């Protein structure tokens, strides 16, 4: 694979991850603020199904099935013909539809920057902030061991 | 590889009702072996996969049903990605691993006993074969008897495998194990469950 | 002969209507909202997700309300719902080493990399009921502490460096993980299938069995190598994309239980491990699961199978509370015909017994009847 293609793929995947992690309400609000086009033909879904979550024995050994999680997916086609996909945990169909459109728009050079700066960047900032806050709150419960000196000498 | 647009189009327009209609047709055809159930073209799969066979797979297959494709379909990447996108069914590496087998060219197909026959405890684990045929009237007439058939009935599917009637006798002898067959034409289907006994009319 | 009896339709409909009324309770009390349950009864929601084997907070919360707080009924509802959904696939195996950790403690190493993080724990609370909570007072914001993100390797990796612990449970490269939701249980079973059954198993049942191993019913001297709780990311391979698609994160609890092992003909003295992994925050369940996992490895490790917790068929066949409740609770449904047959049988046996033991009395009875 050429370098540019690999970078594009990694970036597309990162955007899908941000959309999947973000609340549907936030996506819808930013979408209308950014004035992104939402016209698209639904090729599949939005439909809700299951994925089976796999863990590993002992944490790093052979895989085993832990249980299922709800996932909603959508595939859309823009009037331009560009196709976009989304899979996201939960049952929010509106979110899956918008995220699939975002994926399609991002693949079109004319829309890429708007998707990145006006939709994905604010979502990502909110996720990073939440993550940092949770990390700092957990860090405050870290045990600092100290040794009590007992007896003489 | 990004999937080609032709592999994304041509699925059920109305997934729930289309799937239910196809399922109903298959169920009725299995319950009344040899009866011909007409079906509209709900699916538009890439060639050489035909509409009815494609619709049956969309209705019956999902991520939990390994699917085997005959060499004619194996050689068509568009068919593989169409099936992958619309059903999520994994492709079986070998015929005995398959819950369903899709056969575009029945005249050349491997022997019935090459597929999973199920086990004595779980006879339902056998492979269900979906055979794509041009029609159910121009081939060798087959006289059908057995459960679901009041006296006897006849169909004459075209392009059937060589020594089919002999192979089917052996399939009967493996009961309760054995394969079931769905015959799909362009606009209809009929079924041969393992309980059906077949004689050729000529004999 | 099978006799079908019809009737009771009106009674059933009215009973369900009464159930709906009692579920709602006093109308002057505000109705519970699902987000209140998700936020404020989070561990109950987690239990329903874990044993219902479906990660979806809102559905679990709905099930809890619908079941009036009866957890096993709620788990049953979730299990029933999940059968209505198609399955898109199996995720890539989660990496608990890359978890966004919210709690992580080890009972075996004080100073392990990443440290001991207590997180939102009941440990060290005084278990005194708090009247202020009943009054609904304000709650202080949690404190924050700046710290660098620090790698938090699983504790098993530390012992592994000395070669004193068995490796993670490996299976042959081409082993496809078994799936109890698709294949009937068969004994003996591989460890991957056992773990799937344990992960959805009843917390109370596994807790009792885990406890029994500590009390001597199966030789076992466990330490919590590590418990960690936090979010892990999920990814799914799909045919239409050239990379694994990210789905979002789920919270899980993982427990590595470390057990001394004196060695056998098959393996040198070392530490062996039991493993627990469950949806949500539930370290009691993860620990009990790890104890049971280790006990169930008795045959594999050449130990004598002497206790209930080591008996695979016993543990796995009875760990599912939906199956268990279905079979126990069905006893209250009409068995009129069954029972009539039994009644006839007992009457006949009694008559034979009386005729044999006390012929005079039988004679008296007959005369009295005449």
Automatic annotation (TrEMBL), chain A:
Gene Ontology terms describing biological process: organic phosphonate metabolic process; organic phosphonate transport
Record carries keyword Lyase: yes
Q: Which UniProt keywords apply?
A: Lyase
Does the record bear Lipid metabolism in its keywords? no
Domain of life, per UniProt, equals Bacteria
* Organism, scientific name: Mesorhizobium waimense
**Mind telling me what this protein is named?**
Phosphonate C-P lyase system protein PhnG
GO MF, one annotated term? lyase activity
Matches recorded under InterPro entries: Phosphonate_metab_PhnG (IPR009609)
From TrEMBL, chain B:
Q: Name one GO molecular function term.
A: lyase activity
Q: What InterPro entries does its record include?
A: PhnH-like_sp, Phosphonate_metab_PhnH
Alphabetically sorted, this entry's keywords are:
Lyase
One Pfam annotation, family name? PhnH
GO biological process: any one? Answer: organic phosphonate metabolic process
SUPFAM superfamilies xrefs:
PhnH-like
Q: What is this protein called?
A: Phosphonate C-P lyase system protein PhnH
Task: Give the organism, scientific name.
Answer: Mesorhizobium waimense
**Gene name for this UniProt entry:** phnH
UniProtKB/TrEMBL annotation, chain C:
- Output the GO biological process annotations, alphabetical, semicolon-separated: organic phosphonate metabolic process
- Taxonomically, which superkingdom? Bacteria
Molecular-function GO terms, alphabetical: lyase activity
What InterPro entries does the record tag this protein with?
Answer: PhnI
Q: Which UniProt keywords apply?
A: Lyase
Asked if Lyase is a keyword of the record, the answer is yes
Q: What is the protein named?
A: Carbon-phosphorus lyase complex subunit PhnI
The organism is Mesorhizobium waimense
